[in-house]
Design a protein that fits this description.
Bound molecules: aspartic acid
Order of helices and strands: EHHEEHEHHHEEEEHHHEEEE
Radius of gyration: 18 Å
Largest sheet: 8 strands, mixed
Structural class: alpha+beta
Strand order of the largest sheet: 4-3-2-6-5-1-11-12
Number of domains: 1
Strand content: 15-25%
CATH superfamily: (Glycosyl)asparaginase
Shape: globular
CATH class: Alpha Beta
CATH architecture: 4-Layer Sandwich
Number of helices: 9
């Protein structure tokens, strides 16, 4: 993936304001301005606003941070615009293998599923693993069996697919790109001029990391994080990225911060990115902003990591940033209108 200058968010909710606050992301990547109509761009913004509006209402009525982040990610999984749940990318053998995780900062309890193919909402399965399995991570068919025992909805494996994602896989395979992130493949294809056509979406579908995630601080001062993904287009069957790995793509600790990541999963695992933010704050004494910038600019770049993260600290500060050109993102404070953004500015 081409290197981009580091970009930081236009969204900086007032520092030091406690109280319910929730942030979401729908992936980061290269922006292709003008690649879509304002109506198409509006669809992304509307979806982000809808999710923020719904979860803000829940938190206003007393929902916990954990309930709010799970609902935000469930809604994003249902939306085919994003690479999680319905609309997930394809593996090299034309299937979908989904990963998700949740973490509660109150007691650092956590749950995750990886490589699941038939659970409609993987984030709900991650929550069930946290609450009812006695474990932190379950994988594959056994994770599915557990989820169905807990009453979660089963779908046929092809329920997750969309024609756009299949075309993305076919173009990646035709160009022999190997394993590509959700949106990297289309960028390379568009760039080489052979497969043509601007990618769809305000962020180039070929360079966007399509994972979705949410972080929140509730009225009781508790933090939570949730992350869900289809992974990378054309990934090897069995490949697991950072999204379901606690400490890599998801982390929450009431003593410091809640974090959800999106980007090149292997690098985020090697950087232990989400936990690194927490450790820099809790042990290193860095501010939210300093810790996030250090991870996104320095630590991830040292291991070739492209992408971004969203984070909310125990004081209610929010940081939404990335080292690519854009990230679908939004934040809402109870009593204020949701703010959403896509591009760096
Ligand atoms: N981090 C995800 C993974 O590597 C991909 C993404 O963020 O889109 O599976």
């Amino acid at each position: 993936m081409p290197r981009h200058p580091s970009r930081f968010p236009a969204l900086w909710p007032a520092a030091g304001v406690r109280g319910p606050v929730l942030a979401i992301h729908g992936g980061a990547g290269t922006i292709r301005r003008g690649a879509l109509t304002s109506e198409e761009e509006s669809a992304y913004r509307l979806e982000l606003r809808t999710v923020l509006g719904r979860t803000a209402q829940m938190m206003e009525q007393g929902a916990s941070a954990m309930d709010a982040v799970v609902e935000a990610v469930r809604m994003l999984e249902e939306c085919p615009l994003f690479n999680a749940g319905r609309g997930a990318v394809y593996t090299a053998d034309r299937r979908h293998e989904l990963d998700a995780s949740v973490m509660d900062g109150r007691d650092r309890s956590a749950g995750a599923v990886a490589g699941v193919t038939r659970i409609r909402n993987p984030v709900l399965a991650a929550r069930q693993v946290k609450d009812h399995s006695g474990h932190v991570m379950l994988i594959g068919p056994a994770a599915e069996a557990f989820a169905f025992e807990q009453g979660l909805e089963r779908v046929e494996p092809d329920w997750f697919g969309t024609p756009q994602r299949l075309a993305q896989l076919e173009r990646a395979q035709a160009a022999a790109l190997g394993q590509v992130l959700d949106h990297d493949g289309q960028q390379a294809l568009a760039d080489d001029g052979r497969h043509g056509g601007p990618a769809r979406g305000p962020i180039d579908e070929s360079t966007k990391f399509g994972t979705v995630g949410a972080v929140a601080l509730d009225a009781h001062g508790h933090l939570a994080a949730a992350t869900s993904t289809g992974g990378m287009t054309n990934k090897r069957p069995g490949r697991v990225g950072d999204s379901p790995i606690i400490g890599a793509g998801c982390y929450a600790d009431d003593r410091s911060v809640a974090v959800s990541c999106t980007g090149t999963g292997e690098a985020f695992i090697r950087a232990a990115a989400a936990h690194e933010v927490s450790a820099l704050m809790r042990i290193g004494g860095l501010s939210l902003q300093a810790a996030c910038e250090r991870v996104v600019v320095d630590e991830l770049r040292q291991v070739g990591g492209d992408g971004g993260l969203i984070a909310i600290d125990a004081q209610g500060n929010a940081w939404l940033g990335f080292n690519t050109e854009g990230m679908y993102r939004g934040v809402v404070r109870i009593g204020s209108d949701p703010e959403v953004a896509i591009h760096a500015d």
